[in-house]
Amino acid sequence: MPGKRARRHFSQLSEFERGLIIGMKTVGWSTHRVAGQVDRSESVVRNCWDQWTREGTHARKTGSGATRKTTRREDRRIVRQALVDTTVTRSTIRADVGLAIVPQTTYRHLAEANLKSKRPFRALPLTPDHRQLRLQWCQARLMWNVTDWQKIVFSDESRLVLGTDDNRVRVWRRPGERYNSPPTLFYVTLPAQLV
To answer: Among positive and negative, which fits the CA dihedral 71, 73, 78, 79?
Structure first.
């Protein structure tokens, strides 16, 4: 499998593989031969050996990475705001925290808490009267043909968005919290006599 082998070349070396590389290079094996034996690229073998000869260690250096812009307390505050008010936006959370952080930071902290931005569950609260009126409306149009139905415009079809923001309310939820979360938004787009 060439794809699997190519991905392996980019994965991190384990401690065992580092020890193998150093052992084989110490007894005089060529870089090409060692790379074939451990199924890694020659540059990986060369870098490992160079680190051993230069520093005397094969331990992987910890990456410096970017410095954290928020403290653990601020991280908890971000998550708590999303849990208390599930319809709060990332920009509102950022403003409440009071730090100059980018939206991706807020999103990352919420994702670490297993919160995703999702559309709220749309439900129509139907009472027995509503059901009766809907049934009567359907029975009155039972014998309509295609020409009659072409004169009807349904208002609950998909929305068309020309810009980047559709102004749709979104909520923060963990997986599986679709129905047991309090913010269920109700939309009614039926004629007035049916509601």
So the answer is: positive
